[in-house]
Amino acid sequence: SVLVDFFFSEMRYIHINLYCIYSEMCLKNECPCDLFPDELDSYMYQTVGHQAVGLYAEAMDVPLYRRTIEGSSLHTAREYSQTEGEEVEDLYQLLKLVKKERVEAVSVGAILSDYQRVRVENVCVRLQLQPLAYLWRRDQAELLREIISSGLHAVVIKVAAYGLDPDRHLGKSLAEMEAYLHELSDKYGVHICGERSEYETFTVDCPLFKKKIVIDSMETIIHSADAFAPVGYLRFTRMHTEDKREV
C-alpha cells in the first residue's frame, strides 16, 4: 500500500525532524501514459489511483512533479545497475529534475521490499540524495495500528490476494479492514501492510493535509477474474478537495 506508506513515512520524518521547512518539501509521482491501462503491474510503482494524485499537491499546498513511466521491468535481479529502458530510470530522471528545487532527501515508504529499496538507494547515490526509510523492517501489525491511530485515513483501491474480494473490500478504510487483514495474515500469510501487493490504498486525509480529498464517483475494474484470488481496482472518475472542518 504505497501511498499510505509514503505519507506515514513523511509524518514520521516531520515528527523526528522538527526543523523541516515545508517550503522546501515537494511531491513526486510516476504515472502511466494516458494510452495505457491504469494498472501497469509495475515492480516499482503503484499506478492505480493516479487520476487523483494531482490533488495531493492541493491538499498539502506543495509542488507536485510528475513523469510518465516510459520504461518497464527489465532488470529484475536483486542488485541493480543502470539499465536503459528500465522503469527505475524514470525515477532517476524525475528526481534529477526535483533536485533542482533544493531537495536533499527522498522519503521512501518501503517496509520490506529489498527490490524497491535497492533501486531507490541506487538512484539516490547517483544523484547524491539522502534516502529516508523510517518504516523499514517495522513490525507490520504494529505499524498498521499506528497508521490508523495517527489520523491517516486511507481506502483500499486494489485487491490481489486470496481472501480479498473486489465486491466486498474495495473502498473500505484501513480501519474497517484491520481485523480482517490480521485474520488473512494468520490463515494465509498475507502481509498485513500489503508488502507483496496484496492490496493497495489511496490516502484521502492525514495530518499533513490542509484539505481533504473527496472521491465523488468511481468505477470497479476487474483486472483478473481468477476464481480464488480475483484482482480488481477502483478507477476514480470525479474527485475534489475540500476544507477540513475544525474540531
TrEMBL record:
Pathway: Protein modification; peptidyl-diphthamide biosynthesis. Residues 35-228 form the Diphthamide synthase domain. It holds the Pfam family Diphthami_syn_2. InterPro entries: Diphthami_syn_dom, DPH6/MJ0570, Rossmann-like_a/b/a_fold. Its EC number is 6.3.1.14. Keywords: ATP-binding, Ligase, Nucleotide-binding. One of its GO terms (biological process) is protein histidyl modification to diphthamide. It catalyses: diphthine-[translation elongation factor 2] + NH4(+) + ATP = diphthamide-[translation elongation factor 2] + AMP + diphosphate + H(+). One of its GO terms (molecular function) is ATP binding. Amidase that catalyzes the last step of diphthamide biosynthesis using ammonium and ATP. NCBIfam families: MJ0570_dom (TIGR00290). PANTHER family: DIPHTHINE--AMMONIA LIGASE, DOMAIN OF UNKNOWN FUNCTION 71 DUF71 -CONTAINING PROTEIN. Belongs to the Diphthine--ammonia ligase family. This is Diphthine--ammonia ligase. It comes from Sinocyclocheilus rhinocerous.
